[in-house]
Amino acid sequence: MGLLSDPSRRKVLTGLLTRLNTPICGMPVEWLVKAMQSRGLEVFTQSFSRKLPFPDENKERYMVRGTNVYGILRAPRAPRTEALVISAPCSPGDSNNQAVGLLLALAQYFRNQVYWAKDIIFLVNEHDLMGTQAWLEAYHHTNITGMEYSPLQGRAGSIQAALSLELSSDVITSLDLILEGLNGQLPNLDLANLFYAFCQKLGVLCTIQGKLQRNDWDTAEGYTHAAQTMMLMVLKQACGRSWGDHGLFLRYHIEAASVRGINSFRHYKTDAATIGRLLEGMVRKLNNLLERLHQSYFFYLLPSLSRFVSIGCYMLAFGLLVVILLLRGVTEAQQVSLPSGPGVLTVLTPVVISHLTGVALYLLPVHLQEMAVEHFPVSETEAVVLTAVAIYTAGLALPHNTQRLLSGEGTEQGWKVLKLTALLYLAVLLGCTALINFSLGFILAVTLVPITASMTPHMPKALSALVMVLLSPAFTVLYCVFIYQELIEAPVSVSEGWMLFLSVISQGILDHALYGSLVYPLLALFIYPCWLMFWNILFWS
Amino acid sequence: MDYYNLLTTCAFIHLLVSIPYAYSNYVENKAGQFFSSGHTNNWAVLVCTSRFWFNYRHVANTLSVYRSVKRLGIPDSHIVLMLADDMACNYRNPKPATVFSHKNMELNVYGDDVEVDYRGYEVTVENFLRVLTGRLPPSTPRSKRLLSDDRSNILIYLTGHGGNGFLKFQDSEEISNMELADAFEQMWQKRRYNELLFIIDTCQGASMYERFYSPNLMALASSQVGEDSLSHQPDLAIGVHLMDKYTFYLLEFLEEVHPASQANMNDLFKVCPQSQCVSTPGHRTDLFQRNPGSVLITDFFGSVRKVEITKDTINLTSSLKPLIQRSGSGDMQIESLTYVDQLPVAEIIHQLTPDQFLVCSRRWTEQSVRVSPSVYVQPCEKPPYVDSSPSHAPLCCGG
Question: Which positions make up the signal peptide (chain B) (predicted)?
């Protein structure tokens, strides 16, 4: 009863896909418009442009221009109040050459059915996330990120769910489900369960984080495998970028997931017809929904596709870490006697100077890139990243300079008050971060809480300075890079790891400027100054 | 020998005499049986309380009982059908204008001539109770009223989502078993039924008839308190479950019943045992005065017309003659009537020609009394209600 139950349709689909085997992207806009129109969709295009803060090596210099093409399949009998989106990003080269063909075949099949209660929008976007961001902003009449776009001429109702397809080869052995979105936001768990149920029903191998399911939960290997999968999800969520085009839909409360086809040269292969049936089943199930998906969890961690860890379990672990800081703060507060203690001013100075350093770390790399390029033989991206690293390292020298500025320092009470302030500040910061992006908050808590809770000026300076630096936010990011590479079974050497680390910093700055990712400003403006305050305490004399 | 002859002759004469007597006895018995149930007309109130596409099976349940009831003779004018949602024309229905009860689309219970009286958001607890008790605003059309009297047997069928002591209407309100019991008591006191059969197919359905206290009520439910009623089979093309188990087997049982069949209530109680239904159907007969074994299925599901014999003659024209005579004398005095009729115009309608249904309120007698009934004057208002046209199945569902 589904797609391609008769052989003639199967032949048509295979023909279409073979014809499209050559890389088509570089966005053949006219061809796409004609192809969609011939299938009975209402086709519209949208052009957009964006000035990058610094030119990434993948994109053109500073200015990125593109066109999105989308076709709307109107539901034959329903009022046009709700819509579903199926999107296929069009990237140059081979990276997504099959998805558009599958999209067109689905459009042709869907046009002949009468049971659609929602309009279906087939979106082919250029430049991946940027195109999706431009389209979504135009659709919802917002402008969060400062992109320039032409307004949309055609619109369907409010979008209930979205699917993004990435198929790079015509032979698929498994499908990978990608859930992590911008700022660690996740779609409703029902969407993941739906996809997994369909994969099982059609006999398609389904993976998450690129790893297969195992059935031996009791054994040590099974447990390690599940822990590795969950760790990967934590790392991906913590970095705050959208790992598929679907991630930008989540901000508008549209449940979305990305499906990536993987060819791992197994013996058992799935053909395009089965993938089509799977997608058709998913879209039909989403069509039958009467409300947005909201019954299942929005906050979860997946050690495998059939198990999940809910927020009720993992937030407790985080809470215990933050409680350490609060208890320590209470202890410090008892030891401080306020009337006879030093004034607020002595505490205020380190705080203000730390935050000014943080602001410098946030603003200067992007603003000073031209100056850096003039004086040093580096590209813009490298200039930005190296400026950031330089400012970060310069902050380490601060305590000594601060001491010279102020006189009358060195009282026992001074550092206790500063420590109390810093502990409470860190606790509030970590709590707020965990509410928005649990993984980020947890990783920061794990590295920062032990050393900061036990920080005093009386510890051996050299050793504790070293430990402090090794547990600073920048090194946390470096460790995460190495652990991530280990977990995806592509370990890197130190130099490669360093290059990856620099590219992660540039990606973070770019994500913040383009899509509103909060990781870079959080680390630069809040976490780093907080760490600097503890660094100040260490060198209190 | 004479004595022997006399005896034989007497016996023979006695036999001859007793045959017609036995025959008339037989006729009387038969006649007695014919009138034993005491009802003269049948009504049915069939309610589906849930909306949304995934509750397709509740609409299919109600429509399959509707189909059986119509097939066995109850006309649309005596059926009040309440469906909370339109499944046949739902956008998600891959076969528009149909509602199937058996998978592989074997049986379309929507058919060609379904008349839905209360549809969509009109199916509320208030409307249901008003239909039962007859307290409807005067503008309500006939098709939306339960015009039963004290000789009516009523079948009430409810289906939807329920719990312990309540039935959910439209995802927003509930009717409790106490409200239902009180509504039936109102019906009894207003002499609105002779006997009432109550069937409910929901989860924990038996809780709904626990509180009944009016006489002549018999109740059946698909599951006991604490049990769930289960759905029967999904259809993979349509994508939803088509029927509930209890009503599915009830439909199969009713398909065997024809207007002349002698199946009785004990057979109905045996429908869908636990081996088939998974839940345990229950029934309640303590308020019912007759023995369930002597109650025919067609007493409630069919419309076997019975006649009431009266021994007095009733002069039908006499009530109007005085009015016309008074018109001649110019006297405007009108006799005041002693009771308010359920339908104030019922006795006037048959005086008018069929194509002029100017139905007037009681005031017409004051204004048009000088005019002969064949001329219709302006003071007659437009009918206070319009007979709503039956909603036939839209065969194309608008697209």
Answer: 1-24
Residue A321, φ and ψ in degrees, nearest 5: -65, -40
End-to-end CA distance of chain B: 96
Output the CA–CA distances (angstroms, integers) from residue B158 to A271, B55, B66, B75, B269, in the order listed: 49, 14, 12, 19, 17
Chain B partners of A288 at a C-beta cutoff of 8 Å?
A: 53-54, 92, 239
- Contact assessment for residue A163 and residue A279, using Cβ atoms and an 8 Å cutoff: yes
Threshold 0.90, pTM exceeds: no
- Cα A90 from Cα A84, distance rounded (Å): 19
Instruction: Tell which residue, A87, A111, A231, has the closest CA to residue A164.
Output: A87
Task: Give the pLDDT of residue A14.
Answer: 60
Task: Mark A321-342 as b/e (b = at least 16 C-beta within 10 Å).
Answer: bbebbeebbeebeeeeeeeebb
Per residue in A381-393, pLDDT (tens digit) is 888 898 999 999 9
Is B283 annotated in the active site?
Answer: no
Average pLDDT for chain B: 80
A116 touches chain B (CB under 8 A): yes
Give chain B's length. Answer: 399
Half-sphere exposure of A200 (CA within 13 A, CB side): 10
Closest CA to B193 of B136, B268, B132: B132
Q: Which tokens go with B145?
A: 């009223």
Q: How far apart are the first and last CA of chain A?
A: 79
Q: Which of A77, A287, A290 sits opposite B398 (nearest CB)?
A: A77
List C-alpha distances in Å: A188 to A183, A192, A194, A256, A289. Answer: 15, 7, 10, 8, 14
Q: How much is the average pLDDT of A122-132?
A: 92
What interhelical angle do A528-538 and A461-470 show, nearest 10? 170
- Rounded percentage of chain B residues whose pLDDT exceeds 90: 51
If we measure between CA atoms, which residue out of A450, A503, A497, A457 comes closest to residue A478? A497
Alpha-carbon distance B379 to B221, whole Å? 53
Distance CA B52, CA A446 (A): 48
Residue A526 DSSP class:
I
Going from the C-alpha of A377 to that of each of A56, A97, B272, the distances in angstroms are 17, 38, 86
pLDDT at B93: 92
Model confidence at B365: pLDDT above 50: no
**Residue B131 and residue B193: Cα distance in Å, rounded?**
13
Question: What is the SS3 assignment for B169?
Answer: strand
pLDDT at residue B244 above 90? yes
Domains, in order of start, for chain B: 33-301 (3.40.50.1460)
B307: alpha, beta or left? (left if phi > 0; alpha if psi -120 to 50) = beta
Query: Catalytic: which of B48, B203, B272, B277?
Result: B203
B397: chain A residues, CB-CB within 8 Å = 77
